Amino acid sequence: MTDLTLNEAARPRAPRIPGATDAQRRQGGRLALIHAMYLQDMARTRTLVGEIEAAATPDEARDSAEALAARLEEMPMLRNLRLFGSLCGQHCAHVMAHHDIEEAHMFPHLDRTTGEGFAPVMAKLRAEHEVIHARLEALALATQQMMQAPGAAAYAPLKEAFDALHADMESHFGYEETELREALGVYGGV
After folding, report:
1. pTM of the predicted structure, to 2 decimals
2. CATH architecture for the domain at 21-187
3. Where are the alpha helices (DSSP H) in 107-151?
4. How far apart are CA 10 and CA 23, in angstroms?
5. Per residue in 88-136, pLDDT tens?
6. In a 3-state reduction of DSSP, which class is residue 34?
7. In angstroms, rounded to a whole number, what is the distance separating the alpha carbons of residues 69 and 141?
8. Residue 16 exposed, middle or buried by CB count within 10 Å (0-12, 13-18, 19+)
């Protein structure tokens, strides 16, 4: 997973929108509420990852890994990824309320209404969805490997996969919220 990166240094900045008001910026901040839901999901998952680390025996680790696998299967992000093949394509259910709205509705709307200055930001956000997609798959795989052979050797990749996903999600959400807040408030889309 070390070859995947959000390349934060290469993130383009959205241009300011002349005449945008504070009320519009607040309206554009609604995206952060959706992101908060996903970050709460990640916090619950972190608890399960910690239980695996704290397990005293391989059986306890396996039980904790099985609980994590079940939790991952319940996560809207992963369930929708499995059902529809891509977090950055068209998918449904909970992530549809986020990535599908972004990819199928919000991003195209912003592409049409914001002008050329936003095109690099939109392209970067779409590319970052691909990284998040890959991170989710890596976490699911690491969890399965932990269940098959619990122990320190399997836990390290699981923790690494989770930490990478969590860090990238927080970073991506912050970037998206910051760069799209004004445009979403002025042009709508959330």
Report:
1. 0.76
2. Up-down Bundle (1.20)
3. 107-114, 119-148
4. 30
5. 223 223 434 566 678 777 888 888 899 888 999 999 999 998 888 788 7
6. helix
7. 10
8. exposed
On whether the CB atoms of residues 65 and 57 are closer than 8 A, the answer is no
State the Cα–Cα distance between residues 127 and 6, nearest whole angstrom: 8
Which tokens go with 112? 């049409």
Distance of alpha carbon 19 from alpha carbon 163, whole angstroms: 40
d(C-alpha 86, C-alpha 95), whole Å: 10
Distance CA 177, CA 128 (A): 14
What digits encode the pLDDT tens for the residues 74-93? 665 555 445 433 332 232 23
3-state secondary structure of 126: helix
Alpha carbon of residue 148 to chain centroid: 26
Q: From CA 142, how far away is CA 23, in angstroms rounded?
A: 44
User: What residue ranges do the domains of the chain occupy?
Assistant: 21-187
Residues 68 and 154: their CA atoms lie apart, in Å, by 14
Instruction: Tell me which residue has tokens 């052979």.
Output: 149
Q: What would the two tokens of residue 71 be?
A: 């939790």
How far apart CA 88 and CA 104 sit, in angstroms, is 9
Is-contact 129 169, C-beta < 8 A? no
Helix (H) or strand (E) holding 60: helix 58-74
